[in-house]
Automatic annotation (TrEMBL):
Pfam family, one: tRNA_edit
InterPro entries reported for this sequence: HDOD, RNase_Y/CdgJ, UCP036888_HDGYP-like, YbaK/aa-tRNA-synt-asso_dom_sf, YbaK/aa-tRNA-synth-assoc-dom
PANTHER family per record: PTHR33525, RIBONUCLEASE Y
Domain HDOD: 192-395
The name this protein goes by in its record: HD-like signal output (HDOD) domain, no enzymatic activity
GO MF terms, alphabetically ordered: aminoacyl-tRNA deacylase activity
Domain of life from the UniProt record: Bacteria
Length: 465
C-alpha cells in the first residue's frame, strides 16, 4: 500500500524532536504545541545547566528574570558555573536547538524559581527552533515534584530601570566602583594585540617591504578591529609642536597613506603583538564570532553608505570604521579585564534571553558600548566614532553625528535578522530609514550583496598563507 501523502496543514504543523515527543508520551503529560510568537503571553521557562565539584544542577527560572550566579550562591551555598561541555553534548546527542525545561530529560538535581508557578500556564522550549510547548501550571508542578523551589532570579524590569536611570546621567557620573575602575584603567596606556592570523600576515608583508603596497597594508589593517583603531589613533596623535598632525584622519587608508606610511604601521603593529597572547585563551569561540560580525558590519556599512542619496552620505571611511569597531568594548573587556570578561561570559551563556546591555550594567555598572566610547575618547579618535559606539542601540537618536549611530543600528539589525550577530532582534523603525534616505528594499539589497560575497569575507578573516 503506498504511503499517505501529508496534507498542507500537516506539513505546516509544528514538529517535536523525537526525544521530546517520546518523553512527553512516557510521562503522559498533556501539552499544546505552538509556534514562537513575539508579544505578551504565558511566561517562558529558561533552563540553565550548571556545575561545580559536587556535580550538576538544572536551574529553571522565568524568562522575565536574570539568573545571577552570585545571588544563586547565597541560596544554594555552591559556587556554580555553566556546564557548557555537558550542555553541548546533551543538545548534540539529542539534536536539540535549546535545552527544554523538563527535569526528567536530564539525570541531575533541579532547582526552580517559585515564581514560575504564579501564572496559569507556561511556555517551554521544545528543542525545535521556533516551536514551544505550552503547559498548564498544575501539570508543570507535577513535573517539579522532585525539584527544590526558591527565589533567586533578578527581575528584568528592575535592571531596565537601573540602566535607563544611569544612561540619563552624564558619562562622568558613573555609578559603582567597578565602572569607575574600568574607566580609570582605560585612561592609562591600553594596547590590544592583533589577531594571530593578522600577525602572520604582518610578518609576511614586513619581510617584503619593497614588494608590498599601501593598498596591501590597508586591506590587512581593515580586517582587524584592534589594529584599525590603533592605527587611526596613532595617526591622529602623530603631530608635534614643530610638525602638527595633518587635518582630521577619516579612515585607515588616510592614516596609512597620508600620515604614517606602510613601514611605520607595520613596525608599530609588530610591536603590539610582541610578548602578548593574540586572543584571550578563554574566549576563542566568542572571538571567532566577534571577528566575523565586525567585518560583516563594516562591509555592510560601506554598502549602505553607497545606497544613500549622494548629498546625505557620511564619510565612507568613518562609516566603515564605525561598523568595524561597533563592538570594540567587548574586545577591550576580553583583553584588558579578563576576570570581568569571564564573569560576563558566564552570565551571557546562561541568560541568552537577556540583552547584553542589561547583563553588563548589572554586573559591571557599565556597558560594552560605553567602554568602547570611552576608549575612543581617550585615544582622541574622531567624535563620529564615539557617538556611533555610544548611541548605536538608540533607534531614536537624532543628535550630533546621528547618521553614524543610525547606520550601525541598521547594519547590526539587518545582519541579526539573517542570523549574524548576537544582539536581540528588533524591528527597524521606518523613521530611521527615512532619515537615512533609504528604503527597506535598498537596505536589503545592500545586505544581499554583502552576503553574496561571504566566501571572500571569510578568506579575508582566514588570511591563509
Amino acid at each position: 500500500m503506498p504511503d499517505t501523502v501529508p496534507t498542507a496543514a500537516e506539513l505546516l504543523k509544528p514538529q517535536l524532536p523525537p526525544i521530546i515527543r517520546d518523553l512527553l508520551t512516557s510521562l503522559g503529560v498533556p501539552v499544546r504545541i505552538v509556534h514562537e510568537r513575539p508579544g505578551s503571553g504565558p511566561p517562558r521557562v529558561q533552563a540553565a545547566l550548571l556545575e561545580d565539584a559536587a556535580g550538576s544542577l538544572l536551574v529553571l527560572f522565568p524568562g522575565d528574570q536574570l539568573l545571577d550566579l552570585h545571588r544563586l550562591k547565597t541560596v544554594v551555598g555552591r559556587d556554580l558555573a555553566p556546564a557548557e561541555a555537558r550542555r553541548r553534548q546533551l543538545l548534540g546527542g539529542a539534536r536539540l536547538s535549546a535545552l527544554p525545561g523538563l527535569p526528567a530529560l536530564i539525570d541531575t538535581p533541579c532547582l526552580y524559581d517559585e515564581r514560575l508557578l504564579q501564572e496559569p500556564s507556561l511556555l517551554l522550549d521544545s528543542g525545535q527552533p521556533h516551536v514551544l510547548l505550552e503547559i498548564d501550571r498544575e501539570v508543570y508542578r507535577s513535573l517539579l515534584a522532585d525539584a527544590h523551589g526558591a527565589r533567586f532570579g533578578m527581575p528584568l524590569v528592575r535592571l531596565r530601570h537601573n540602566l535607563q536611570r544611569h544612561a540619563a546621567e552624564p558619562m562622568e557620573a558613573v555609578q559603582g566602583f567597578t565602572a569607575r575602575r574600568i574607566r580609570q584603567r582605560l585612561e592609562r596606556r591600553v594596547e590590544i594585540p592583533p589577531r594571530q592570523n593578522t600577525v602572520r600576515r604582518i610578518h609576511q608583508l614586513y619581510g617584503n617591504l619593497h614588494g608590498c603596497s599601501d593598498d596591501d597594508v590597508t586591506d590587512l589593517i581593515e580586517t582587524d578591529p584592534a589594529l584599525a583603531a590603533q592605527v587611526v589613533s596613532w595617526a591622529g596623535l602623530s603631530g608635534t609642536a614643530h610638525h602638527p598632525a595633518p587635518e582630521k584622519v577619516l579612515s585607515v587608508e588616510d592614516a596609512i597613506v597620508r600620515v604614517l606610511g606602510s613601514e611605520v604601521v607595520l613596525n608599530l603593529s609588530l610591536g603590539l603583538s610582541e610578548g602578548k597572547p593574540p586572543e584571550p585563551p578563554d574566549a576563542r569561540d566568542d572571538m571567532t564570532s566577534y571577528w566575523e560580525a565586525a567585518l560583516y558590519t563594516a562591509t555592510l556599512m560601506d554598502g549602505l553608505c553607497r545606497a544613500m542619496p549622494r548629498g546625505t552620505r557620511p564619510e565612507p571611511g568613518l562609516a566603515y570604521l564605525a561598523g568595524l569597531l561597533h563592538n570594540f568594548g567587548y574586545l577591550t573587556l576580553a583583553h584588558i579585564f579578563p576576570p570581568y570578561f569571564k564573569l560576563l561570559s558566564q552570565h551571557l551563556q546562561i541568560n541568552p534571553h537577556v540583552p547584553h546591555a542589561l547583563v553588563e550594567h548589572h554586573l559591571l555598572g557599565v556597558t560594552r558600548e560605553q567602554i568602547g566610547a570611552w576608549l575612543m575618547e581617550h585615544w582622541q579618535m574622531p567624535e563620529e566614532l564615539t557617538v556611533a559606539l555610544n548611541c548605536q542601540h538608540d533607534a531614536g537618536y537624532r543628535g550630533r553625528h546621528a547618521v553614524y549611530a543610525n547606520l550601525v543600528y541598521l547594519a547590526v539589525n539587518l545582519l541579526r535578522n539573517r542570523g549574524i550577530g548576537d544582539t536581540p532582534q528588533e524591528e527597524i523603525p521606518q523613521r530611521l530609514l527615512d532619515d537615512l534616505g533609504l528604503t527597506r528594499a535598498r537596505a536589503e539589497e545592500a545586505l544581499d550583496r554583502v552576503l553574496a560575497a561571504e566566501t571572500a569575507l571569510r578568506v579575508l578573516l582566514a588570511q591563509p598563507e
